[in-house]
Known about the structure:
By secondary structure, the chain is α/β, with parallel strands linked by helices. 38% of the residues lie in helices and 18% in strands. The site of magnesium ion has 4 residues, from helix 10.
Amino acid sequence: MLELNSDVRFLKGIGEKKAQALNKLGVFSLYDLISFFPRKYEDRSVYKPIALCQNGENVCVKALVANVPSLARIRRGMDIVKLKAVDESAMMDITFFNRSYVKNQLSQGESYVFYGKVEVSGKHISMVNPLFEREEGERRITGKIFPVYKLSSGLNQSVVSGGIRQALDNCLEEIPDVLPDTVRQSCRLCQVKYAYENIHFPADFKALEIARRRLIFEELFVLSCALGRIRKNRVDKQGIKFRKFNLEEFYSTLPFSPTNAQRRAVNDAVADMCSGKEMNRLVQGDVGSGKTLVAAALIWFAWKNNLCSAFMAPTEILAAQHFETLSGILAPFGMHIGKLTGSMTAKEKREAKAALKAGQYDLVIGTHALFSSDVEYSNLGLIVTDEQHRFGVSQRSALIGKGKTPHVLVMSATPIPRTLALILYGDLDVSIIDELPPGRQKVGTFAVDESYRQRLNNFILKLTGEGRQVFVVCPMVEENEDLPMNLKSAEEHARELSALFPKLKTACVHGKMKPKDKDAIMASFAAGDIDILVATTVIEVGVDVPNAALMIVENAERFGLSQLHQLRGRVGRGQFKSYCVLVSDSDNEDTQARLKIMCKTNDGFKISEEDLRLRGPGDFFGSRQSGLPETHIADLGADTLVLQQAQNEASLVLDSDPELIFPEHKALRERIDSLFLQNSDSFN
Ligand code: ADP
Ligand code: MG
C-alpha cells in the first residue's frame, strides 16, 4: 500500500538505482515526488499542416510515410534513417540518427503523428529525430501537454512522469491542504487535488495556469506564515535595556553634521535598544549614504552603556578600512578598539581573543573570524554587520549566540524592492537612509564600445594629470571557463595599461591573491600612491577612496545591474566630479537595457527594481546567499502581486491563530515545521 510518505523505491519502474538518482534531486518520498514540479512543458497538443510549420517551432504533424525508409551507415558508429512524409499541404524530410530500429517501425503508406522541431530552409522542410506514433489508436506521446522535469543521470522523462502518475493515482486523496478553506475561497484558488494533477498532467493550458497560481500562492503563503512566526518569536525576546544618552555629545565631534536620514536611523535603533526588547534592525542605504556613521553613533552609545560592540565586515579589506575609519571617529573618546581577522598571525589572534574575553575592547572589528567558536565576549551589547547580503542568516545568528542577547544592526547597501525585503529580511525592522550627504555630485555614466578605447585612454590621462585616481574593474575569470577571446582578465589588462602609461603607477588586485597582499595594494591606492587600480570585483563593496574619480568597467555585460551600481558607488565620494564608463561590445538586448538604466539613473532603489525585473531574484542575491529556502515554483521576482496577497492572508491567519492550533491550520503548521527542519541552518 503506497502512502504519501512511502519511499519512491516502492514505485513500479523505480528500483534502487533510480531511487538514488531521485534522491540526488531532493526527492525521497512520494510527497516529494509529486511536489517535484516540471521545469517546463512541451506542447504536443497542436497539429499543423506541414506547409504552415515555421522554422524552429516544436509541433505535431500528421503525415503519411511516402517511401520505404532507407538505412545508411555513414561511418563506424553512425547510421542514419531517412524518409519522406507527406500531408495534403506539403512534403517533409525526416532523418533519424543512430536509431536504425525505426526503419522497421515506420511503414510506407501508413499515417503517423510526428512531434519534433521543424527546420525550414527555403522550400525545404525537415525534422530530425522526431517522436512518433501511429495516427490510429490511443495517443500516448502526442496530443497533450507534456511535463518536462529536471533530471539527474540514470533518469529519463518517462521514468519520472511514470512515477508521478503512480504516486498521484495512489495518493491524490491524501494530499494535505495547507490552505485554510477561507483563504482558498477568498483568493479564488483551486482545490489541492486539482492543482497537483494539473501541474503535472495539465488538461490544457488554462488548467495549468489555474494549478500554477494555486501552488505559487501556497508556497508564498507558507513562507510568509513561517517568517511571520519567526518575527513574532523575536518580538517577544527580551534584550539588554540601554540607558539614554544625548547623542549630540557624539555628533558634535564630527567634522560634518549628520543628515536627517542618518539621525533618523540612529534614533530608530536607539529606541529599540532602550525598549528592553532585542533589536534586530536593518539599515538600508545606497552606497555613499553614510551608514558607517550610523554604526559609529550606536557603537558609541553602547560604550556609554558600558558594553562592547562587534563590527563584522565581509572582507579583510573592508575590515581594515572600517578599523581606520571607526578608530578615527571613536578613539578620541578614549575607546579601545581591536581587530580580529583571519589573516592575522596566530599570536595576534590569540591576543585579540584574550583581550575580548577580558573585556578590554570597547569595539572589535573583523571578519568571519569574529564568530568562530573559540571567541568569547565578556560584555557584548551590540553586533553590527556590514553589507549583510554577503552573510547568511545562519552566520548572523551564530554571532548572536555569542552574547546574552546582544542587539543586532545589519547594514546593507543593496537597495531591495519592498516586497522582497519583507521576505528576505522578514525578521528585521527596517530603517532607510534615503538621503545622500550634501554636495554629492551625480556620477556621470556612459556606456561605450571598443571604438571609444582611444578616447577613454586620453580621458584616463587627463584625469590622472589632474591628480585623480582611476579604478578599472574586470570580470572575475573562473578557471576552465569557456571564454570569448576578448574578455579582459585583470592581470593582463593591468600589464597593457602600464605599458600604455609608463609614467603612471598601475597595480592589480584580484580574488586569488593573499589577503595581506591585497590589503597592501588597497592601502597604497587609498594613500594615493597608485594611479590606476585594476581589480576584479573584490572592490565591489564599501571601499572608500574619495580621490578616485573614474570607474571603468570592462566587459560590463558580465555584471548585473546591482553590481554595476555598487561599483559605480566607489567613485564620486569626494568633492571631485566623477565618472563611470561601462565598456561593452555586446549588442545583446538585455545588456543594452541594463547599461541604459545605469546611464539614466543614480537611484539605487530604482536600479534594484529594474534588476529584479530583468534577471529575477536568483541572480539578484547570488545563489543561495539569501539564507532563504529555495522556492520550487514561485519566482520571488516575478510573482510580487501574489506575494503581497499571500503576505496579507498569512498575517490574517496568524492574527487569528498565532500558534496555529486550530484544526483547520494543522496541515499548515506541519508544513511550516518541516520547512524549518529542512532549512534549520538557514532559519534558526
Ligand atoms: P556607505 O553608506 O556606502 O557605507 P560611508 O559610510 O562609507 O557610506 O560614507 C561615505 C562617505 O560619506 C564617507 O567618506 C563619509 O565620511 C562621508 N559622510 C558620511 N556622512 C556624512 C555627512 N553627514 N556629511 C558629509 N559627509 C558624510
Ligand atoms: Mg559602507
